[in-house]
C-alpha cells in the first residue's frame, strides 16, 4: 500500500507537468505510409459506445497505415470493468483496451494482467509531452499510452446566458442564485441525472466535496477520513437541497444526446463533465464559443479554492492476449502524426505533440480556454473514479444513483458506502481506518 500511495503522489506530480497536454504542440513529421503485405486484425475494447463510429474509422486507418486493423468492441460502462477483468485472465484478452489509471490500473498490475510497454515508449516516446510516461508508470514499469488527459469543468449554454444577460458565476452564492433564476424561468439547471448511464452519479458529490475542502477530499479517497464524517454529510445535505429545489435536468436525460440538445436549444444551463465533453457536443452540432462556454465551479469554502479534478484515460495491452504483439505494433502507430490528426478531428483529443496550440485554438477555442485556466488551479486532484479503491467507488456510484431519486435516504446511503470502506481498506494496507 505504501508503494501505491507513492505512485499516486507521483501521478499527481506528473500530471502537473502535463497540465497543458492538449496544447503541447511540437514539430510535425510525415505520417506513417501504408505497409505492404497482409493486414492483421486485433481486438480493441472500449466503453464509449457513443464513440463506436470513430473507433471503427480509427481502426481502419491503422490497418491501412501500419497493417494492424483494430476491431473495436463497444461495451456499456456498467458491465465493462467486470467483462474486461474476466477476459484479461484468458487468451480472449483484448490486444488493446481503454481503462482508467489509479486504483483500477493498479489492481490489474498486481494481478499481472498488463503488458509492459516500456520498450514501445523507448521507440515512440518522443511523440508525447514530457511527464506523460511518468504518469502512466507504476513501480518503474510503463503500462499504457494516453487516450486523453481531461480536466473536469462546467460547460454552460450560451443561449441561456445570453437570454438572461449573465456571466459565469465567480462565487458559490452567484452559482446558487443563477440556479434559482433558471428554475423560476423554466430552465433546467444541471445536466447530471440518471439517463442511460449510471456512472455519472459521482460527478456532483465529487465537485461539491472538492470545492468544500480539497485536502479532506484527498483524505477521504485515501482512507484517512470516513464517509460518515460531518463534511460528507454536509455535502449530501447540500446536494439534497439542490435536488429538492428541482435544479437538475429530467432524470431520464442522456448525457450524450439529450443534454447537448437541451444546451443548444436553451432549456438547460450546465453540463459538468471532463473537457472531452466538448467533442460530444460538437458531434451533436454545437459550436464551441457559440453554443457553449466553460467555467470552473467556484469554491464553497476557502479550503476548496484552486482545486480541479482530472483524469488520465489510458490505452493498455492485455498481457495474456494472443494479439499482444499486434497491440504493441498498434501503439507504435498510435504515436504517429496521422493518428494524431484523426484523433483530433474525430474526438478533439490531442495526447501527442503533433497538434499545435494554434490548431487547437482555431478548431476548439473552448478547449484552449480550459488549458489557459489551469495555472489558476494548482490543486489538481485525481477524480473520484480512479482515486479510491474500485470496491468503494462502485458502492458510492450505486448509492448516488439512488440518491438522485430518493434524496431523503442520504444518511442511509452514506452508511452503505462506509460499510464497504470498512471492509475494503484493510485489503489495501490501511489497518487503522
SSE layout:
Blueprint: H1 2-17, E1 40-46, H2 52-66, E2 68-74, H3 77-87, E3 96-98, H4 103-110, H5 118-124, H6 132-135, E4 137-138, E5 141-142, E6 145-157, H7 158-164, H8 172-184, E7 188-190, H9 203-212, H10 214-221, H11 230-244, H12 258-265, E8 268-274, H13 277-283, E9 292-295, E10 307-317, H14 324-334, H15 337-347, H16 357-363, H17 365-373, E11 379-382, H18 384-387, H19 390-405, H20 410-424
Helix pairs in contact: 2-15, 5-14, 9-10, 9-11, 16-17, 19-20
* Helix content bin: 40-55%
Under CATH, the topology of the largest domain can be stated as: D-Maltodextrin-Binding Protein, domain 2
Distance between the termini: 14 Å
Shape: globular
Q: Based on the structure, what is the oligomeric state of the protein chains?
A: single chain
Classify the beta-strand content into a percent band.
5-15%
CATH A-level architecture of the largest domain: 3-Layer(aba) Sandwich
Uncertain segments are 16-20, 22-36
Number of helices, counting only DSSP H or I runs of 4 residues or more: 20
CATH superfamily of the largest domain: Periplasmic binding protein-like II
Radius of gyration from the CA trace?
21 Å
Average of per-residue pLDDT values: 92
Biggest beta-sheet profile: 9 strands, mixed
The class by helix and strand makeup works out as alpha/beta
Structurally, the number of domains stands at: 2
Name of the top-level CATH class of the largest domain: Alpha Beta
**In total, how many beta strands?**
11
